Amino acid sequence: MLIRNAAAFVGGCFHAGMEVRVHNGRVHEVGQGLANGLYEDAIDLGGDFLLPGFVETHIHGYRGHDAMQGEAAVRAMSRGLFRAGVCAFRLGVASDYGFAAECVRRVMENPEHHGAVVLGVCAGDEAPVSPLMARQAFLNLLAWGVAPEDAVLMCTATPADSVGEKLAGRIVPGAPAPLTRWSKDWKWKGILA
User: Fold this and answer.
1) Most buried pick, 7, 155, 160, 169, via CB within 10 A?
2) Partners of 44 in beta bridges
3) Residue 135: per-residue pLDDT
4) Spatial separation of the C-alpha atoms in residues 168 and 126, rounded to whole Å
C-alpha cells in the first residue's frame, strides 16, 4: 500500500505532502515522489494526519483474551490490537508468570503477520509507564492542551523506548504498521495497515 499526501509524523514532527509505503505489516519506505508499485493500492489522505501505531506498555487483556488463556489468546490480542491502531504491546500478568512468558515467547518467535508486535511480558508492578488505551489516551492528551507532537511521542515513541523497542511508534523504514489516520481536526479516521 502506498499512502500519499499525508501530514506524516516523521522525526518528531509533522511533515506535509509525505508518502509512506507499507509492505508486509511494516513501513517499507518514507519520502516524497514515491512511484506506485505494480498492483499496489494507493490512497490519498488529502492532507490528513498520519501517526505511527500506538504502543501499549502494560495490557492484561483485550476483547476477552489474555495471556493466561494460552498462545492462541495472545495471538488474538495481537491481531485485535493491530486493528485498533496498536503497533506493539507488552502483556501484564498477575499470576503464573512462567506460563504467560512461554506463550508470549512463542508468539514473539513466530509473530502474527498482521498483528501488533509482542514486546514481552511483565509482572503487575513492573509497568514502566501507566497503561495507555491507545486512541483515548491520545485524545485525552490533546484535550488537556498537550501539543499534538508531544502527545504523539507520549503515546508512541516514549513508551516504545521505555520497553526497549526503538522502531515501534515511529514512521521509519522497518517500523511496524499499523499507521493511524486522523482528520485535520483530530477526529479518528481509522487504520492504514
Assistant:
1) 155
2) 4
3) 82
4) 20
Half-sphere exposure of 123 (CA within 13 A, CB side): 6
Residue 127 has pLDDT above 80, yes or no: no
pLDDT in tens, 130-164: 444 678 889 999 999 999 999 999 999 988 888 88
- What is the C-alpha separation between 179 and 46, in angstroms, rounded? 16
Q: Which is it for the CA torsion 8, 14, 18, 20, positive or negative?
A: negative
Query: What is the model's pLDDT at position 81?
Result: 92
Residue 89: which of 139, 131, 126 has the closest Cα? 131
Beta strands in the chain (DSSP E): 2-10, 13-23, 26-31, 42-44, 49-52, 54-59, 61-62, 65-66, 86-93, 117-123, 179-182, 188-192
How far apart are alpha carbons 186 and 88 in whole angstroms?
A: 22
pTM of the model: 0.86
